[in-house]
Amino acid sequence: MKILVIGSGGREHALAWKLAQSPRVRRVYLAPGNGGTSGNRAFQNIALQDFEDLVQYARDEQIHMTVVGPEAPLAAGIVDTFRAAGLRIFGPTRAAAQLEWSKDFAKAFMARHAIPTAAYRSFTDAEEAHAYVRLRGAPIVVKADGLAAGKGVVVAQSVEQAHGAIAAMLGHRNLGAAGARVVVEDFLEGEEASFIVLCDGRNTLALATAQDHKRLLDGDRGPNTGGMGAYSPAPVVTPAMHARVLREIIDPTIAGMAAEGIEYTGFLYAGLMIGNDGQPRTLEFNCRLGDPETQPIMMRLKSDLLDLLECAVDANLGRAVAQWDRRPALGVVIAAHGYPEQPRQGDVISALPPDAEDSVVFHAGTRLVDGQLVTSGGRVLCVTALGENLKSARRRAYESVAQVHFAGAQFRTDIGNRALRASQ
């Protein structure tokens, strides 16, 4: 059978890579895909973006199921369009995806359903937002309400920085409509973790936990990014914490959406902050898999991903079981020169390590130009490896990173350090 994956990043490459391993899958199509999914017998890129064109393509090619990777098509209603055409698609509807595309909706939803999160207020008036920051002090977090391609969150360490973020979003409209409303919330301290589940509207199936690294530079310094690396599992999510997150955050979210007349199907990602008091609180919801968390999670998944997605689409997730490789996995993102502010494109990628059973290079910002692989985005690659323990997975990943060559390449050298310190 044929599968269609929507998206072009490392998350989509990892999804396609895992789906192609199913004995029932003959070909995985990607719209639009990237350089890593070009010229591979298991994959085929298609240059389509319009939803109606994609629907027609899915009909013509007899696509068994479509899987949506990124947030923008979900927010634009691609799932609604495919469902209206009678086609199988995995992902939340536009209404359900409000949990991601509107920070204000998500915070108000959590307040209505007593889901633990940071105290907050929403603003469309800049002066009111400035006054709230003066009242609350710093550190404090300023978020654009809408989707802003990873640029809509400012963790302000000073009141002045918070005022600058508010002025940029509400005053200068640097983020356009996405920043026409801002959410200002208390800064939470603790350790972050990514908790991702499959949902079929009633039931959930938890995937392996993961932890990513948002800051650009070693030691969690520098600007926030889309993610510079990740590892799975996240030691901070103990079995007791896992049960607590399901009980206090995930289950109330799915039940709350159903109570408000919105059936949630698809991936649900809860970005958690686990405080020193042991309380898990929700930093954000994403309505898709995280990137780069997807890469180590897919490396560890032993079950047939297609089987799990079919159970979710058919509302049979209650009987699904996921099997995981006991070995940890760790991924290191290699970014382009100038990332995240002004990533340079067009640098030739002159060397890559070969994929192996325990190491895979997932592509994100790459494309083929006259048969030559070049950079085409901020986060270029995610080199991901398995190991008998986290230390060996980390060593294997960095051995492969050393074999990647393109001008201006930048990456962190300390992915996984926090977990390694905690285990000592």
How does this model look, in words?
The structure is a single chain. This protein is α+β, with helices and mostly antiparallel strands. The chain contains 13 helices and 22 strands. It has a 5-stranded parallel β-sheet with strand order 3-2-1-4-5, sandwiched between helices. Strands 12-15-18-22-19 form a 5-stranded antiparallel β-sheet. The protein has a 4-stranded antiparallel β-sheet with strand order 6-9-7-8, with helices on both faces. The mean pLDDT is about 95.
Spatial separation of the terminal alpha carbons: 47 Å
Strand line-up across the major sheet: 3-2-1-4-5
Main beta sheet, described?
Answer: 5 strands, parallel
Average pLDDT, all residues: 96
Beta-strand portion reads 25-35%
Global geometry: globular
Structure characteristics:
424 residues, single chain, 30% helix, alpha+beta
Question: Secondary-structure blueprint of this entry?
Answer:
Layout: E1 2-7, H1 10-19, E2 27-32, E3 43-45, H2 51-60, E4 63-68, H3 71-75, H4 78-84, E5 89-90, H5 98-101, H6 103-112, E6 120-123, H7 126-136, E7 140-144, E8 153-156, H8 159-171, E9 182-186, E10 191-200, E11 204-206, E12 211-212, E13 215-217, E14 221-224, E15 229-232, H9 239-259, E16 265-274, E17 280-286, H10 294-300, H11 305-313, E18 329-335, E19 359-363, E20 366-369, E21 372-375, E22 379-386, H12 390-401, H13 417-423
Parallel strand pairs: 1-2, 1-4, 2-3, 4-5
Antiparallel strand pairs: 6-9, 7-8, 7-9, 10-11, 10-16, 12-15, 13-14, 15-18, 16-17, 18-22, 19-22, 20-21
Helix pairs in contact: 1-10, 7-8
